[in-house]
Amino acid sequence: MKGFTCTRTTPGGGAGLFSHTCPEDQNREVSMSDFQTGTAATRGDGPFVAGLLQATLTARKVAAIVALAWDGPQLRAFTVSLGLGEQPERVEQLAGALALAAGADACRVAREGGRLLLEIPKPDAERKPLRAGRLEAFTPPTPTAICLGIATGGRALWADLADERSAHLVIGGTTGSGKSVLLRWLLYRLAVQNDPAALRFVLIDPKAFELADFGRLPHLLHPPVAKPLEVARVLSWVAGELDRRAQLGRGGGGYRLVVVVEEVADLLATNRDVGPLLSRIAQVGRALGVHLVATTQQPGARSLGDALVNFPARILGRVASATLTFGAAGRKQTGADCLLGRGDFLLLAAGETTRFQAPLLDGRQLSQLPRAATVATLDAELPTAVSIADLARDPRGGRGRRELTPDDYGRLEAVVAGGAGADEVRGRFGIGYERAARIVGGYREVYG
Fold first, then answer.
1. How much is the pTM?
2. What CATH number belongs to 2-17+24-126?
């Protein structure tokens, strides 16, 4: 989609890469009766609202025919066929008046595939979720392709991690937008579509509960991590894995690795040293079979830093205000401030913007997840906790004068594990007290 206008008011009175259809589903649009989300497109209030919208345009001297195109879970979409010589910009300027005419608090005007669309939210009482089970009827074109949801108009919307145009994904939106629900859906589909020999996960969950349902997957390389220093250790290992794969050449890893980070902006705020690691994974990973999937409240450069430019695809949920839309989307006039939350998203990728409804995952899907008796661990391969703690930035800018070798770190970790405090570490290894305290504190954070 291109050219969006969205106006909020108070009620008064695409196809292409990401819309793939499988051979058995060729040319099939999804009927909303398939999803039990509302009335059929030919019944209910849709035609009446279409008449109100057309009358509003006529009263503003815009020659147009308005017809109901799609009756979705949370919104109705209407096509606008303009008279000869009429400019789409005139309709975009009337978004507020059209919202009032429809009795809605917003109207998003979008252009898609040569059509002009009016997207009108349904009343709260008529909005219903899109059940995840309905999307499982679709056969993915590849094991790494995920059906993100249903795009406006009724077609299935796909994103494939194996495609460089969607190799990394960032999901943004305020609380209530549905970003964590969408992330869980993506993880679920990747887990059930791929054998552990072909795809592995590294899960970073600072909240320590959002990804708990996935903590026993046989696809895990390591148990989910939450503590900042432990996160830095795991991401340092991933960076080393990139180097190893680069030496072996493309495909040298043997499996795809998906690194999942919940609330990445919060993580960067508490541990600044993971920023360069994430940036490197985003920059180099796509060519080496390593993918980054992250969520954040506001997916802008201020919160994601250098890593943002290497995310080829963004999924944007509801934002707090129109002023935040540009920073989150990286482009003008997306209409993200008109999104409804609860799984209403925009996919921004390959120069296109597509609105879609994400599914709601429930216990039936989660019960189908494969479970491992024991979870794999990278403990034997991770850098030592004391070395990562030593590399953490000193708040005052200093790190001590003595450079410690890997052997030094091995001995230092054994000493701290034996109960040594900062004073003893300082004396035995000839480093400053602040540095020693930081090392001891980092070790205690990981091991208690």
1. 0.83
2. 3.30.980.40
